[in-house]
Amino acid sequence: MAAAAAAAAVGGPQPPQPELPAPGLALDKAATAAHLKAALSRPDNRAGAEELQALLERVLSAERPLTAAADGEEAAVAGGGGGPGAAEEEALEWCKCLLAGGGGYDEFCAAVRAYDPAALCGLVWTANFVAYRCRTCGISPCMSLCAECFHQGDHTGHDFNMFRSQAGGACDCGDSNVMRESGFCKRHQIKSSSNIPCVPKDLLMMSEFVLPRFIFCLIQYLREGYNEPADVPSEKDLNKVLQLLEPQISFLEDLTKMGGAMRSVLTQVLTNQQNYKDLTSGLGENACAKKSHEKYLIALKSSGLTYPEDKLVYGIQEPSAGTSTLAAQGFAGATGTLGQLDSSDEEDQDGSQGLGKRKRVKLSSSTKDQSIMDVLKHKSFLEELLFWTIKYEFPQKMVTFLLNMLPDQEYKVAFTKTFVQHYAFIMKTLKKSHESDTMSNRIVHISVQLFSNEELARQVTEECQLLDIMVTVLLYMMESCLIKSELQDEENSLHVVVNCGEALLKNNTYWPLVSDFINILSHQSVAKRFLEDHGLLVTWMNFVSFFQGMNLNKRELNEHVEFESQTYYAAFAAELEACAQPMWGLLSHCKVRETQEYTRNVVRYCLEALQDWFDAINFVDEPAPNQVTFHLPLHRYYAMFLSKAVKCQELDLDSVLPDQEMLMKLMIHPLQIQASLAEIHSNMWVRNGLQIKGQAMTYVQSHFCNSMIDPDIYLLQVCASRLDPDYFISSVFERFKVVDLLTMASQHQNTVLDAEHERSMLEGALTFLVILLSLRLHLGMSDDEILRAEMVAQLCMNDRTHSSLLDLIPENPNPKSGIIPGSYSFESVLSAVADFKAPVFEPGGSMQQGMYTPKAEVWDQEFDPVMVILRTVYRRDVQSAMDRYTAFLKQSGKFPGNPWPPYKKRTPLHPSYKGLMRLLHCKTLHIVLFTLLYKILMDHQNLSEHVLCMVLYLIELGLENSAEEESDEEASVCGPERCHDSWFPGSNLVSNMRHFINYVRVRVPETAPEVKRDSLASTSSDSLSSLQSSRRPKVLQRENSGTAQVFSLVAERRKKFQEIINRSSSEANQVVRPKTSSKWSAPGSAPQLTTAILEIKESILSLLIKLHHKLSGKQNSYYPPWLDDIEILIQPEIPKYNHGDGITAVERILLKAALQSRMNKRIIEEICRKVTPPVPPKKITAAEKKTLDKEERRQKARERQQKLLAEFASRQKSFMETAMDVDSPENDIPMEITTAEPQVSEAVYDCVICGQSGPSSEDRPTGLVVLLQASSVLGQCRDNIEPKKLPITEEEQIYPWDTCAAVHDVRLSLLQRYFKDSSCLLAVSIGWEGGVYVQTCGHTLHIDCHKSYMESLRNDQVLQGFSVDKGEFTCPLCRQFANSVLPCYPGSNVESNLWQRPSNKSIQDLIKEVEELQGRPGAFPVSISSETNLSKEMESVMKDIKNTTQKKYRDYSKTPGSPDNDFLFMYSVARTNLELELIHRGGNLCSGGASTAGKRSCLNQLFHVLALHMRLYSIDSEYNPWRKLTQLVEEVNSQQGNEEQQPEVPILYHDVTSLLLIQILMMPQPLRKDHFTCIVKVLFTLLYTQALVALSVKCNEEDRSAWKHTGALKKNTCDAEKSHEVLLSFVISELSKGKLYHEEGTQECAMVSPIAWSPESMEKYLQDFCLPFLRITSLLQHHLFGEDLPSCQEEEEFSILSSCLGLLPTFYQTEHPFISASCLDWPVPAFDIISQWCFEINSFTERHAEQGKALLIQEARWKLPHLLQLPENYNTIFQYYHRKTCSVCTKVPKDPAVCLVCGTFVCLKGLCCKQQSYCECVLHSQNCGAGTGIFLLINASVIIIIRGHRFCLWGSVYLDAHGEEDRDLRRGKPLYICKERYKVLEQQWISHTFDHINKRWGPHYNGL
Predict the structure, then answer these.
(1) Most buried among 123, 460, 1450, 1534, using CB within 10 Å?
(2) Helical residues (DSSP H) of 60-180, grouped into ranges
(3) Which has the closest alpha carbon to 541: 493, 622, 488, 601?
(4) 3-state class of 483 per DSSP?
């Protein structure tokens, strides 16, 4: 755009300086520049300066079309037109010339670079850039390095990772504030020390003059382009302006890259206030400048900002001191003249606020420091540039320019101050922005560079009040979305909370500001200032209280909620990011004793804020029912600072605790959360939808737990240790709503809980108590112990990978806290508690990753069920841990049955918390334990094993933590009367255990069984008197509620609370009855309650002993162990008690009780002596019995069902495993089609759909389920042994010239050049690329059944893994993927046995028979002519086979659609399948037997189908190669008519294997064995001759003449025809007549092998030449006649196969060395037929001597196909490919991929490379693999398989050091090749089993 101006000025009619020529020639510009430079260099340079100013004024003038246009839209158009573009260039050219001062600009750049003193890298990158972070070298957690600096530095053994930048960043190499110098790279180590010469003055002189004008010009554009419309400026306008400014900003960016010298000039320009004042004041006479200044002021105003000197320009009334002109945005109450400017913003937000549903609250805020929020004054270019950068919402180019300047220290400080000054403005812009995500990233991109530097952060904090600004801005931001809190007292609440439905919270818009705040708090110096500043702390607590109680849940009692709000995500994220993380940041600086003062400050203001909160919500003592909020950040701040104070600062806990009343209030809400968790898990909140479960899970989840549940539990532990234990315990049971359940009566009424929830709520309450009493996370465990406990808990639930462990273990969220994942302590603890299980591979199964599993001793000693329960997100994980524990005990033989969770010894308590243990020694708890034990013994309903387990756990905890002496029993009596004195004399559990309780009075419904016995009990006077003496019954009836039956606990709790509140001793002794809340009155319909007296006569000890009898099912099963073995009392730690079930637990408890006191020991012995019969349940009525039975039956049924389901699942799994195990032969379902024994007359097939068996018939044919797929695996064979490597540099490239497919292609096209087409198509095979491979799972079905099966699949919409329309289906039995059915040929096996009998006919007779059979089309089964079902199916399957591969792989003929083509295609299908089977067997037949591939092969059936179709094309007998092989032709024929048409292919150029297949497929089926042998014998003679010809060409002239003579001498011996020497000499002499050997000039000699040929090496050569043919032939024989293949050593493979094929005469002796020639059996005299064959070649070489040799059949040299070899380390691949550009569009693709078969680089999903709607990967998979592609996705390290129209993610072959994949490189740890996995991949590729083994396929719609 700058140029638009230049156009007006430069090209304009009035050049102000006559001596300046019209611009256009660079020369003139250079001359002008040189002239000016000279002028300026003079001592008196005023004239030069003026001249330059005038020139710049003209070149860079802002008078241009843009201003003329009234509105921005036209302006932008005008600026973007074609014309001005050129002028824009012009202005830049001028600037470059002027800077260079007449020299060349490039030379100038180079010159400036030479003076670059920068020791910093400072490379700036944008989002998605790949960078590195090394935690070992980093001082700041945000440190990052560019790839170049990282690889140049030495980070071996460091904890580093690669990451994709999310917001952009800059390289910190060379900056010792952020990283240690040891990590600097080579470039930046040297720079920092060496001295750079001084910059010559004149080099940059011009820059100092030119740049201020240039930057001012840029600012004018920005002012000009910004039109403040009525609404928010549209993205489009802003982007247009920015696009036009692109060249200018890029120019500045280039300047910054010139290095330090240029940067310091720029810094001077940007920060010089005088320059700015002169140029921008707008007071000059220049109208344009004036207008620009006005626009600037308007922009300021519309942003809700004032310009302090507004009065000068606009005369707005003077702001009175201390207040700002502007009303604070969004506060009612403040009124200002410009208040209405904000209204747009307001409406905008209220409009979007539909889902909040609640009115937003405005705070009238007088506390706000207006100067922070609303005043901006710009004093330099830098400041205004930043202002516009923000206004334009941080354009990427501007951000990069501003950041590129940072290596300049002076600039860095100035810029940071400017940034802080604009902080409030940034927040306002961010809030309004539509693209807040992008903007957030850009803001953080800048701020992280500034605030990570401690020195800088400290300086700005001191000089610019950084902390005040940040806290105020955050507070201000949140104030815009406050609503009234509905917690507790909805009407009168004064508390306000954030509304989680607002965009601000939902979209996380606040995170840039919060993340900056966390970042600066990580610096000790800054955090200290914060903690010392009381005002700031008050403001901050005020901020935190906005989150206190947000996202309130109200329990739905009637119907399900209509709309499940998902606001809880926002709420949890907000508490974690805005409250918890700053808290952890502050905590990390409170580690030593000297910092006590800080803690006191925080705790003090925290308590004040909490007190305010309780007042605001009108909280007295009862929380409102059916409400819960999971967000109590104030409680958690308080808790965490308390914990730190005790743990690290040795602060006295009581000195920071409030009074009792406050403690009581503090515990209510955290306790409410614990109770609600239990309610949610008991399904009491189901009507609130799934989201409430989501909240319960998030609350305990690993990233949140240490900021949420852990502080809550710790706070409850603190309260419990300081409050009255009876009060606390009764509060717990009341909160969990199970008070009514705790009665001795067998029936009760629960007024607040439905019966079905009672059991799980009781379990919840007891479990909570166990956790509360046994958790030591904040009560004395060291960090390492905590880490160990966390790790053990996670490993016990499941085996874990290293990365999931890192993720699951709650690390301290603040990065500077010490425990970093992967730190030393993490690794050492991990190796101490776990064993590594390396990744395993099951063939055909899923690939496992490396896992860690707990060591045996961990299960034995450290398994802690309490920790597991605390940390499980899903309840099933607890079960999983118990199952694994059970399995361990069974396996190690420690315990055979179902164990109970083990009791684990705890770390000792920190002395400050000793009071916690009083909970275990209070009468209330003992009453509860006694009651529950009694109920369990009496089989009352609603009690489970879990309850018993927890009860015993609590008793054991009490015994472990009992007061040492029992003297306190007497003392307690003297205290004030308590209502439970009647139960237990004291409060010590040890003594209370033996206390017998005789009678209890209970209130029961009248219908209860106890009522009937009431009279009996009252007759026995002693019973009554005993009751009288214990005045208080178990249940206390409230005076004012006639019906309520309430456990005395509640009254007790109320009384306590009242006492504390009233504080007067006189009242304290009376029982004060508080008002009863309606909650406790029973519904009116309840039956009347009456009082009954129960006879109990038990103590806890006697109940335990009876329980032991009950659990073991035997009477007096308990016998005190110390009676036999007195030792037990001395060394109590007995391993036998460590693991076991309830019986073990009871025995352990009794033993501990006996150890604790002699009295207990005596009483236990006494009880055991009175051999007690088990107490009969006190006459349970029939009705009650019924309900009990029903409950029990239900429970049992449930368990049975679970068991059945589990069993069913495991059976199903094992079936699936065997059925799917394609690669392991043992489990394969045996083929049902192998030729049956002779006695069976006809093959019988089972149909897997209808289940009937029977033969395949013409009318109802049976077929094999087959999968047809095109394959290019054969074509990938190469002839060199060295495997090809994946290219990882530009030099390495892979060329496909030496692949099997390429070689065969070249050969066919050569043949077609010189010979007749139809004859060429019989001389070769195709299908090396795109051949059709047929495989089967071995199951058969009727073809009509199959059709109906397909119909049903078509109507079933669910199965979309494959496409039914393309004929795809899964085998109905084994679910293997298939796409066609191959009909089985009806035939009797007896016949085939007849065919196999050897006949004694001579070879000549057989040859004639073969020829006749081939020529007789009528030899077909007659029925074929009439269309039968079978022939129709045969045709349709042939169609399928053709359609499997692409047309280009079928049509090789010059005349399209010629029958020869089909003929070639059909026998090549047979060839492809035989060759592939050979490869599956490892390339040879040494192993013999039927391989796995053999089992899945269906060649027999395939041959029938092919033969049937081949016979339709009969070869003209004239051309049948059989004639040429077996008869001597008169030479006259062959010469005839040679002129007018191309000759046929000479027989020696024919591929023998192809001939074999043609001959066999031309025969009527089934074939007779002797015909087969005859064909093989004849073809072997041809093959052998080809071998001799090839050998003769291989050797040099001398060898040839020598052999010619030696052989000629033996020619007349008896077996001359079977001696290779004779035959070779004959071949040489025949071929010498032609020109085959002639053209051996100098260039040929290099090729000829220099080896000396010995007879042995010749023999080996000939055998190797013939072996491939023998292998294929033997395989064919194996399939056609069902004969077994013998196994053998590699060296004897030839002789074994040849005898197996009948080539060797039977009388052949094997003593002397084996000679291949002895297999020859010539049908006609050898020398005659050889000379006939050689003659054909000679006549060809006459005309085309040079091709004669190329077309000879060479020895087969193909090695097995392999995928490319991959480098060891993944980084080598990644670094080369992730920056590699696409060959089509030369951009770097978003998702680069590379083909692992051929190494081609492709773009995944790249639109640039799309051709006819096919994306590049799909296209490549068709060209390279005929539809199968294997690609490595560079950016994800994952391999993707494309198969036809489907694709699947296969997994990764690169694993990290812990055996894990790193999909998408999220962790960025170094990855290494896993050879086993790569082998598995290659195996699946070669065996074509991708479809069977990989399960998750989806359609790719050609979009990959």
Answers:
(1) 460
(2) 65-68, 72-80, 82-100, 105-113, 147-152
(3) 601
(4) strand
Q: Is the pTM of this model over 0.70?
A: yes
pLDDT tens digit sequence for 1464-1498: 898 899 999 999 999 988 888 887 665 554 566 78
- Indicate left, alpha or beta for 1312 from its phi (over 0: left) and psi (-120 to 50: alpha): alpha
Between CA 537 and CA 606 the distance in angstroms is 9
- Alpha carbon 1819 to its chain's center: 28
CA 503 remoteness from chain centre: 28
- Taking the alpha carbons at both ends of the chain, their separation in whole angstroms is 41
**Nearest 5°: phi and psi at 498?**
-70, 150
Closest among 1017, 1193, 993, 1187 to 1098, alpha carbons compared: 993
Pairing of strands 1872-1873, 851-854: unpaired
CA contacts within 13 A on the Cβ side of 467: 24
Amino acid identity, residue 518?
I
What lies within 8 Å, CB to CB, of 1439 at 6+ separation is none
CA 1214, chain centre distance (Å):
28
Q: Which amino acid is at 581?
A: Q
pLDDT tens-place string over residues 551-601: 999 999 888 888 888 889 999 999 999 999 999 999 988 888 888 899 999
Region 511-540 average pLDDT: 93
SS3 of residue 490 by DSSP: coil
DSSP class of residue 1268 equals: E
Q: What is the enclosing helix (H) or strand (E) of 1794? A: strand 1792-1795
Model confidence pLDDT, tens digit, residues 1522-1566? 877 777 776 544 444 444 567 888 888 899 999 999 888 888 877
Please give the torsion angle defined by the CA atoms of residues 351, 353, 359 and 360, in that order, rounded to the nearest 10 degrees.
Answer: -90
Residues sharing a CB contact under 8 Å with residue 1085, sequence separation 6 or more, in sequence order: none
Is the peptide bond prior to 1566 cis by the omega test (within 30 degrees of 0)? Answer: yes
Q: At what angle do helices 46-59 and 82-100 cross, to 10 degrees?
A: 160
CB contact at 8 A, 1495 and 1338: yes
* Single-letter residue type at 1419: A
Give the position of tokens 């399928």. 1440
Q: What stretch of H or E contains 361?
A: strand 360-361
Q: How many CB atoms lie within 10 A of CB 1396?
A: 18
Our CA angle for 1517, 1519, 1521, nearest 5°, is 100
**Which three-class secondary structure string do you get for 876-902?**
HHHHHHHHHHHHHHHHHCCCCCCCCCC
Residue 836's beta-bridge partner residues?
852
Task: Kindly report, residue by residue over 486-505, the tens digit of the pLDDT.
Answer: 888 888 888 999 999 888 88
Helix axes 381-391, 409-421, angle to 10 degrees: 50
Residue 1309 has which token pair? 């096209």
Q: What b/e readout covers 1259-1281, taking b as 16+ CB neighbours within 10 angstroms?
A: ebbbbbbbbbbbbbbbbbbbeee
| Segment of 76-80, 806-810, 1418-1422, 1612-1616 carrying the highest mean pLDDT | 806-810
The answer to whether the Cα torsion of 1698, 1699, 1702, 1708 is positive or negative is positive
H helices present in 1445-1543, as ranges: 1459-1480, 1492-1495, 1499-1510, 1521-1526, 1531-1535
The identity of residue 562, as a single letter, is E
Residue 1337 corresponds to which amino acid?
C
For residue 549 the two structure tokens come to 């109680």
Residue 134 pairs in a beta bridge with 160
- Region 1413-1429: mean pLDDT is 57
- The three-state secondary structure class of 801 is coil
H/E stretch holding 163 reads strand 160-164
Peptide bond into 899 cis (omega under 30): no
Tell the burial category of 977 from Cβ atoms under 10 Å away from its Cβ (0-12, 13-18, 19+): exposed
| Torsion sign over Cα 292, 296, 302, 303 | positive
Query: Which residues face 360 on adjacent strands?
Result: 483
